[in-house]
Amino acid sequence: MSQEIAVIGSPDFTTGFRLAGVRKFENVPDEAKDDELDEAVTRTLEDEDVGIIVMHEDDLDHLSRNARQSVERSIEPTLVTLGGSGGASGLRDQIKRAIGIDLMDE
After folding, report:
1. In whole angstroms, what separates CA 79 from the centre of its chain?
2. What whole-number distance in Å separates Cα of residue 38 and Cα of residue 53?
3. Three-state secondary structure call for residue 49
4. What is the pLDDT of residue 87?
5. Distance (Å, whole) CA 35 – CA 63
6. Alpha-carbon distance 91 to 45, whole Å?
């Protein structure tokens, strides 16, 4: 079964993905993130057609502790964050979490 990419974030963040063909998205305006982001993440986590969730790194700060733990611990769908200050180490942690080993370990 083929799974899709879903994008969660502000309309400015999701628009580029939508133009690139991503069909599943949750628009949450910046001023509503504290109230609506948890619900958007929960809906997306429960969608069996989604294999990857893309969010902006800074949006994780708007999630409740439970929602943040759920999305960070989720194997399928896998969370990929962009932006923020995580940089290469953030990507390294995401890969390690997804496959269970550190490919860059010496």
Report:
1. 4
2. 14
3. coil
4. 53
5. 9
6. 20
Beta strands 78-82; 4-9: pairing state: unpaired
pTM tops 0.85, yes or no: no
Please state, for a pLDDT cut of 70, what percent of the chain lies above it.
79
Type of residue found at 6: A
What's the pLDDT score for residue 31?
96
Which DSSP category does 62 fall into? Answer: G
Q: Is the domain covering 4-99 a CATH 3.40.50.970 domain?
A: no
Angle between helices 33-46 and 65-73 (to 10 degrees): 30
Count Cα atoms within 13 angstroms, Cβ side, for 98.
Answer: 16
Amino acid sitting at position 50: V
